[in-house]
Amino acid sequence: MKMLLFLTFAAASALTSIAQAPIVRARVEPAKDIIVGQPVKLVVTVLVPNYFAGSPDFPELEIENAIVVLPQDRPQNSNEQIGGTTYAGITESYTIYSQQPGDFHIRPAEIAVKYADAPPNSTAAHVPLPSIAFHADVPAAARGLDYFLPTTRLTMTQKWLASLTRVRAGDSVTRTITVTASRMQAMLVPPLPMSAPDGIRVYQSDAAVEDRKSDRGEFLFGRRMQSAQYLIQKAGDYTLPAVELKWWNLATNRLITTTLPAVHFTALPGPAAVTELPPAQEIVAASPPKPLTPWKKYRYWAEVFLPIGLAIVLLGWMAHRFVPCLYRRLVALSKVRKQSERAYFSNLRRSCQAGDARETYRWLLKWLARFHPGVSLQGFLVLANDQALTAEIDRVTGLLFREKAGADEWNGKPLWKELKNYRVSCKKISYSPVLAPLNPK
Predict the structure, then answer these.
(1) Do 390 and 381 touch, CB atoms closer than 8 A?
(2) Arithmetic mean of pLDDT, 139-152
(3) Which of 155, 154, 150, 182 is nearest to 254 (CA)?
(4) For the chain, which residues make up each domain, given as ranges?
(5) Which of 87, 170, 217, 229 could form a disulfide with 203 if both were Cys (CB 3.0 to 4.6 A apart)?
């Protein structure tokens, strides 16, 4: 009988520990009818029992033939009841841009999370991301095209470096066509036909591409600039054909054709060439030239280009030797500054003064990990032994994880005042000198 009770208790304990383990949910939006190039949201939610002891570490994702943008928006906090246990949740969203039709699978990844399994004690766990896949396709109306350009906005403009109103035979004019597509890489824009009728020769230059991103790394637009030089070989009336570019409008789900109209102009005859006979010159017997030595023949080029070549080699070696090291040091220094205790405390101050309870709670955990490494939130309250500070922290955690409304009306200035006083008192204790007694016995 005792053995049966023991086994029953062990099974119940195992079920309780499983039920109180962290949970990860993931979904894609939209879930179907996805078009190539359309932004797809991967929404990931992490749920832990009780509360978080630190911010979850969401991984970087890589998908073949797709561009993945890391979460940029503020994480969303939530809470819910699961099996009689209150779970706190944090939700982040990735943005995925497929570059060709087919099935896309997210590779296995783990999310590192720290939470209070038995308050005030905390533990760390690595929870696997659920397997997610989606399918992207090209609309039926665009399957016959040699290329597919999905975007929400596309513009095509042209510019002439010289006027076509008074062009003559023998002249040349340069034409530049610029295509700008929202949220699309410039390399995906196809080459444009820049043909001309007989009597005009076309010399095309290499296209210039530019991708513009925001400070968060999100694609804003891609731009392709294609130039050509038209050489007018003879006089006459000419018409350059129209230039068309078809693209798929993601906002209206329609195939759009953007067109530059045909260009008509008349080339006038070039100036008549006049041939003049030079005056007769007296023939004078000249002495044969003296043969030049190799040094005299190439002395000028050696004196000019040899120092330039040596300087270029020296500068190239110095750049190869020192620039990468300097760049790595600057990046590391910037990263250390952004992740310092002072920077985290500054972000915590702005969140408190703005009255944003969710951001305040997130930055409080990050700052605490820098100020008191290894100390949980409950351990921090015990260590501080400050009733006013404990009351303010209980107020913000209660608004986020125990109440359903009121987080937007929270006033964080009292919490900021208590945290600032605590930090100043800790600094004074850390840096106050220890003096020897004046009158030792």
Answers:
(1) yes
(2) 83
(3) 150
(4) 20-137, 145-267, 341-429
(5) 229
